[in-house]
Amino acid sequence: MGSILQAPSVKQSVIVVGSGLAGLSAASELVARNVPVVILERQAKPGGNSIKASSGINGVPTRFQPPGLDSLQHFLDDTINSVSSSVMSTMTETRRSLISTLTSSSASAINWLVDEKGVDLSRVAQLGGHSHARTHRGAGQTPPGASIITTLLSQLKANPLVELQINTTVTKVLTSQGEVIGVESQQGGNVQTLHGPVVFATGGFAGDSTGALTRYRPDLHGYPSTNEALPGSQDLLSEIGAQLLDMDQVQVHPTGFIDPKDPSKTTKFLAAEALRGEGGILLRRGKRFVDELQTRKVVTEAITAQPPSTTEGTKQWDIVLLLDEKTYQSTKSHVDFYLWKGLMQKKTISELDHSDVVLETLEQYSDIVQGKETDALGRKSFGNWALREPKPDTVVYVGNVTPVVHYTMGGVLFTPDAEVLDADGKAIDGLWVAGEITGGIHGANRLGGSSLLECVVFGRIAGRNAARYVETTSDKR
Ligand SMILES: Cc1cc2nc3c(=O)[nH]c(=O)nc-3n(C[C@H](O)[C@H](O)[C@H](O)COP(=O)(O)OP(=O)(O)OC[C@H]3O[C@@H](n4cnc5c(N)ncnc54)[C@H](O)[C@@H]3O)c2cc1C
């Protein structure tokens, strides 16, 4: 059964597709300009993958950073390095303008969240690939994704200009004479047509392991993911002429937890990078095999160099992440959660598989940490590792991990004004995009903390421009 709905309001409503950080940032800017919003979300629980973000959001310069060290130029340079020179050599001007908007708007993104929305982002950390500490999170236990999303969502839900429809999947973008005029969606068995300008913020396709991921990266077919196992929605925009860019650029994270209760589950919890940074080591059949502090790419390649142990169609590897007592203490808030979830276990060395080999590995590793030997694998920094004399009854903390598809850098080609470009390089009227659905910012590698940032920066731009569009088109009526 079909129905045509028009949100009752003086001003035309803007349709925001997706309730992750990009969609909620756009919606917040729209209602701040008195423009009504209908948010369409296919899942029962709003927040998308954004709500899972655990490390933080980048911003430069901010009052939370150590004074005088970082600069916009450093952030710009780090981002361009991360994109890689080969990717940067194509569409260079487009990429430069997007990256420049991202970095130069980053301080105002943090200030907006902190000062206008009331989110605590007072702690900063330095993540891999960054030359300075610039990734912001709160001082408390709540991870940054959850605290940002719950704050924006509760403010939007309290606003009478906002209508949030959950369990509603957009299946088609409607156009007339080259202009986007609305969307068709499904809720249960009902088809609904909604008219209005559209902000598309549907995220990436890292969880779409048998669909878009297989199409663009057949080598990653069957990989588990940190994202929800749902289809990507990029095709809905390519169907109306949007250009796609960098679709084969996919970030694989080396360590997602294999849950012993459900080893073949396709969606996995991320084993935070901090576990290795603070001292954790990786073992294959009881032996170390890589400098654990290498980039995500190098560590992943060292793991996947050996054949996988495919479990019920999920392509995964048997790697153990091991922490000593001191490393556990320094990552307690993370690890206590993983222990509670059953993703890590507290065990003695004698209780581990290949326990004799593990004991030998740890004896040798403690000599390396004490400087008695150099590490043949090249690790030079050992975090908080303090175990000096491992014995069979020494307590360690372990979890099984495997590489997981984490983020898709490619997506819809767009402009610094969050407009979508068609094959002729012309902006499609009535449509804006933001967040992981877009391509062109991260190239070969996304810097940690820069995806929450792109959601806020381009989500806000999309919201402001959609609001302006509503004002202009209603003036003409
Ligand atoms: C475990 C984890 C940790 C992370 N940690 C960080 C971090 O610390 N810092 C950082 O910067 N980034 C981090 N990221 C990446 C970051 O969270 C995401 O890239 C970003 O949040 C994407 O936001 P988004 O709004 O574009 O998409 P999402 O948050 O994924 O939201 C998209 C929404 O659109 C909905 N949707 C999709 N298609 C349709 C459709 N057809 N109809 C209706 N609804 C639809 C989806 O259900 C979803 O709710 C992390 C990611 C994961 C998975």
UniProtKB/TrEMBL annotation:
<dbReference type="InterPro" id="IPR010960">
    <property type="entry name" value="Flavocytochrome_c"/>
</dbReference>
<dbReference type="InterPro" id="IPR050315">
    <property type="entry name" value="FAD-oxidoreductase_2"/>
</dbReference>
<dbReference type="InterPro" id="IPR036188">
    <property type="entry name" value="FAD/NAD-bd_sf"/>
</dbReference>
<dbReference type="GO" id="GO:0016156">
    <property type="term" value="F:fumarate reductase (NADH) activity"/>
</dbReference>
<keyword id="KW-0274">FAD</keyword>
<comment type="similarity">
    <text>Belongs to the FAD-dependent oxidoreductase 2 family. FRD/SDH subfamily.</text>
</comment>
<protein>
    <recommendedName>
        <fullName>Fumarate reductase</fullName>
        <ecNumber>1.3.1.6</ecNumber>
    </recommendedName>
</protein>
<dbReference type="Pfam" id="PF00890">
    <property type="entry name" value="FAD_binding_2"/>
</dbReference>
<comment type="function">
    <text>Irreversibly catalyzes the reduction of fumarate to succinate.</text>
</comment>
<keyword id="KW-0285">Flavoprotein</keyword>
<dbReference type="InterPro" id="IPR003953">
    <property type="entry name" value="FAD-dep_OxRdtase_2_FAD-bd"/>
</dbReference>
<feature type="domain" description="FAD-dependent oxidoreductase 2 FAD-binding">
    <location>
        <begin position="14"/>
        <end position="452"/>
    </location>
</feature>
<keyword id="KW-0560">Oxidoreductase</keyword>
<dbReference type="GO" id="GO:0010181">
    <property type="term" value="F:FMN binding"/>
</dbReference>
<dbReference type="InterPro" id="IPR027477">
    <property type="entry name" value="Succ_DH/fumarate_Rdtase_cat_sf"/>
</dbReference>
